[in-house]
Amino acid sequence: MYHSDDKLKEECGVVGIYDPQKNDKISTLTYFGLIALQHRGQESAGIAVYDEGNVKYYKEMGLVQEIFNAKNLELLKGNISIGHVRYSTTGESYVTNAQPLVVRYRGGSIALAHNGNLINAGKIRNELEDNGSIFQTSIDSEVIANLIARNYKRGFEESIINAVTEIEGAFALTIICEDKLVGVRDPYGLRPLSLAKLGDGYVLASETSAFDVMGAKYIRDIRAGEMVIIDEDGVKSYMYSSEKKQALCCFEYVYFARPDSVMDGKNVYSTRQNAGKILAKEHPVEADMVIAVPDSGIAAAIGYAEESGIPYGVGLIKNKYLGRSFIQPDQKSRELAVKLKLNVLSDSIKGKRLVLIDDSIVRGTTSGRIVSMLKEAGAKEVHVRVSSPPVKFSCYFGIDTPSRKQLVGAIKTIDEIRDMIGADSLGYISIDGLVESIGKNADSLCTACFKGNYPMEVPKLGNKYVFEKI
Ligand code: AMP
Q: Which UniProt keywords apply (predicted)?
């Protein structure tokens, strides 16, 4: 039995490029795009290119720059390309699970790159396997490719629409099918996907920062429930689902996306800076200096400093060459990772009352380590301010949050968390404050990690909800 639904939590980034002419540089451009999306996944990466009926691909474990070089990019020539960066939290991190997935079927080849998490992949996969389908990977994305391939006789448009209406959960997809580039966003628009113009062609990417590096000009975001088909006639749009309310993931703004990206019309840096200003109004404190947990806390710390009038300063130095602390699989190595990643600038903070801004507290390990490092280095007081509300519910849609048992916001009160991390005071932005900082209607954002109001019914194991058992 295949049970991906409760354990595969993927954080990924996708790109896609369509050029009407064969382009020797298409894989290099895709490579640039993936480098700009590297923060969305550091475990594996891959590129697939379509060339006159054939799909060639290369994927490996590791960082984009480690995987690709002039030699292997040179082999990937064509006029359509997709790329993927992946990070999963499961033990199942091997190259077969890397993407793009390339599936050969009677009608040709499909290449698919998926960002997000499906919640009914296990069920569909079991049904497909009962009917004789064979799967090569343990990732939910293979179910999508399989569903598309099964219905190819209906034509690719219908078979993709059929597949994406069967799957549930979060998905932003770039697909090569026949001689077309296809982009799809799930009916809630949980994960981002944008469209840009590049020369005579088009680009799709999880974040607009990928367009900037390619020199592509942003056109618009793909809508929730929309499929776009890009070929020599340009871009065709189909709304395959329009009855759902949009629910773009709040955590993209809080932590996940790059600050220089624009997501559904909102620049991520500005939303974080706004969150810092709101946080200063909601949780003021007397202090000498505002410092950030680099890098994701910087924008909010600047906002907090502007609003409060307390000067912003640098109190922590980050080692730029280490990945995100979450990547360490167990608690002990996560603690070590904090030390390896951050060091205190003692001279700058000694004897001072500090406001320490972080974008989120998930397990509570990072903040606890940082507060004690600051105090050991001579900080007089450390007041922790968090630019997202307490994370109380696991994410089923592609952000790596652990089970509820490990979410400190779910199992402890704010006073208990303050004591656990050793802070002199602790304040989180309110949910309304976060929504205001993003500047979108609350109804168009997914706030389930804070409220538990999942936009759709989340997975059950047997008859029990997995997430309720804390
Ligand atoms: P902790 O409270 O120790 O679990 O870690 C919180 C820190 O991890 C914060 O500083 C965040 O910047 C970062 N963080 C939050 N969410 C994620 C995520 N989904 N993946 C990786 N890092 C994250």
A: 4Fe-4S, Glutamine amidotransferase, Glycosyltransferase, Iron, Iron-sulfur, Magnesium, Metal-binding, Purine biosynthesis, Transferase
Assigned token pair, 338: 């904090």
DSSP per position, 286-325: --SEEEE-TTTTHHHHHHHHHHH-PPB---EEE-TTS--G
Give the DSSP letter string of 168-219.
Answer: -B--EEEEEETTEEEEEE-TT--S--EEEEETTEEEEESSTHHHHHHT-EEE
Instruction: Give the tens place of pLDDT for each residue, 288-324.
Output: 999 999 988 999 999 999 999 999 999 999 988 775 5
| Pairing status of strand 464-465 against strand 460-461 | antiparallel
> The whole model's pTM is what?
0.92
Which of 258, 356, 359, 362 should be mutated for ligand 1, with most atoms under 8 A from CB? 362
Q: What is the pLDDT of residues 403-429, one digit of tens each?
A: 888 899 999 999 999 999 999 999 999
Protein residue with least CA distance to atom 18, ligand 1: 400
Q: How far is CA 46 from CA 33, 103, 110, 174, 436, in A?
A: 12, 14, 15, 13, 37
For residue 63, which of 92, 99, 34 has the smallest C-alpha distance?
A: 34
Mean per-residue pLDDT for 431-439?
98
pLDDT at 30 exceeding the cut of 50: yes
Strands 342-344 and 353-358: unpaired
pLDDT category of residue 243 using cuts at 50, 70 and 90? confident
26 C-beta neighbours (distance < 10 Å), count: 25
HSE, CB side, 13 Å, CA atoms: give it for residue 193.
35
Q: Is 326 in the pocket of ligand 1 (CB under 6 A)?
A: yes
Q: Go through the domains of the chain in sequence order and give each one's CATH number.
A: 9-244 (3.60.20.10), 265-445 (3.40.50.2020)
> By C-alpha distance, which of 150, 60, 47 is closest to 102?
47
Which pLDDT does position 365 carry in this prediction? Answer: 87
